[in-house]
Amino acid sequence: MKECDILVIGGGPAGIVSSMSSRAYYPDKKVIVVKSTEENVVPCGIPYIFGNKLDSLEDDFVPCGKMALKSGIELLIDSAVDANYDDKTVIFASGEIIKYDKLIIATGSTPKKVPHSDIKGVHYISKNPKELEVTYKDLESAQNITIIGTGFIGLEVALELYEKGKTISLVGKQLLGKAFDSEFKELIEKIILKDDINHYKAHLKEIRDINGRVSSILTDNGEEIKCDALVVAIGYAPDTKFAKDTGISLRSDFIYVDEYMRTVKNDVFAVGDCAQKRDFVTKRTTGIMLASTASAEARTAVSALYSIKYSKTFSGTIAIFSTVIGDTCFASAGVTQEMAQKEGLDIEVATVVVDDKHPNKLPNSRKQTIKLICMKRSGVVVGAQIIGGIDVGEMINVIGVAIENRVSIYALINLQVATHPLLTSAPTSYPIAQVAQKLDIKINGQR
After folding, report:
1. Fewer C-beta within 10 Å: the chain N or C terminus?
2. Residues 222, 201: contact at Cβ < 8 Å?
């Protein structure tokens, strides 16, 4: 039987940050990480192995073995199958038993499945390297590829395959799901969809095959779409089998945790995709899974392993996203206007369009559209959506900080930023300050 101070089950972003943070906070503690695969991939980098941006699957690998060794972390390749929480032991598939003082469960998530997944040519965007390799090889030889799901992963995979000369059909009601309001979705469609990419605003009804190989799909609109490969990217489900089998409480299929990521079992924490998520603004349980959220949860859990040092350290996911298609970046954070209205939030909304360089005759200058959402009475920022150049990816992070710290538009009006003609909008019309000012005028009137 092995013994350790801190045992981490899982090698994804949550597991990596949990183990590395454990070494940083508690250098004298013995840390063991157990994960089921030798290699790990960067989840957000997966779409780019199917296009021209990465040369191979190996280019998306995380060198977690070397990182663990360098940090003094013991790494084992195995799968947890049982636990005795009274004795503080975990039993693994190999027969290994590890006794722990603190346990962090970071078992992640798996792709959501549809019926008839056993048909050849039907693929999911798995985080397992071996499964990804099978998908990659099959899609390389396929020409007519249908993608089910038009969220971030589905869309990114579709466009990467398109750039490789594949014939692409997209099936899904809305591009980029619930991250944007309708007027932004219309703009996204105009920018993203090529003339020869077919977008079917429908849902999958049936997968059809010839001799066991996918040949077409039927949508709920009655349309038949021919294809020789099908990629299903309809989201991920929390991998909670180990937790469920060992008696840890679940809620909405996730492991129930408090704001310090503690489960109902003493000295057992859960972080990442397997752990329950709450929306930062509404506090409702949400299925949004992000590596940034997983990393924040891991740091929260580790800081509270032996004593709680801060009050309410993690108050929920702010659902912060960004993606880049071609030279256009799309980003969002917090609630959308449509979500806020559905939840009954008393909000105000404003949108501005500015140039992202100054003067706008500079090379690569383009328009930047930012929509900001705040509570009407307090002015506290609760959401934003941005479309523009590459700097949008960092701009949404500024707004993310504002949302998490409940910053008001009145503070953003006075935002001081480093500007440069080649890098940003003009200081006289910096978009965050400008849209905050527009909200102030809408709420309080002209002075």
Report:
1. C
2. no
Distance CA 400, CA 183 (A): 21
On the 0-12 / 13-18 / 19+ scale of CB atoms within 10 A, 444 is exposed
Say what the alpha-carbon torsion angle 231, 237, 238, 241 is, to the nearest 10 degrees.
-90
Q: Alpha-carbon distance 234 to 109, whole Å?
A: 13
pLDDT at 69: 66
Per-residue pLDDT of 10-25, as tens digits, reads 999 999 999 999 999 9
Where b means 16+ CB within 10 Å and e means fewer, 80-117 reads beebebeebbbebeeeebbebebbbbbbbbbbeebeee
Give the end-to-end CA distance of the chain in Å, rounded to a whole number.
73
pLDDT tops 80 at residue 372: yes
Cβ atoms of residues 157 and 49 within 8 Å: no
Strands 40-41 and 61-62, bridge-based pairing: antiparallel
Q: Tokens standing for 420? A: 């440069």
Helix (H) or strand (E) holding 168: strand 167-171
pTM of the entire structure?
A: 0.92
- 222 Cβ contact list (under 8 Å, min separation 6): none
DSSP 305-326: SS---SSS----B---EEEEET
Provide the CB-side half-sphere exposure for 216 (13 A, CA). 7
Radius of gyration of the chain (CA): 23
Give Cα separations from 237 to 8, 108, 248, 276 (angstroms). Answer: 20, 9, 17, 11
Domains of the chain: residue spans and CATH? 2-109+237-303 (3.50.50.60), 113-234 (3.50.50.60), 327-444 (3.30.390.30)
285: amino acid identity, one letter: T
CA distance 260 to 402: 22
Q: Cis omega (within 30 of 0) on the bond before 359? A: yes
* Strand ranges (E), 220-366: 224-226, 229-232, 236-238, 250-251, 254-255, 268-270, 321-325, 328-334, 347-355
pLDDT tens sequence across 180-208: 998 888 888 887 776 678 899 999 999 99
Classify 14 in phi/psi space as left (phi over 0), alpha (psi -120 to 50) or beta: alpha
Integer CA distances (angstroms), 440 to 123, 312, 379, 419, in order: 49, 30, 8, 23
Interatomic CA distance for residues 437 and 294, integer angstroms: 34
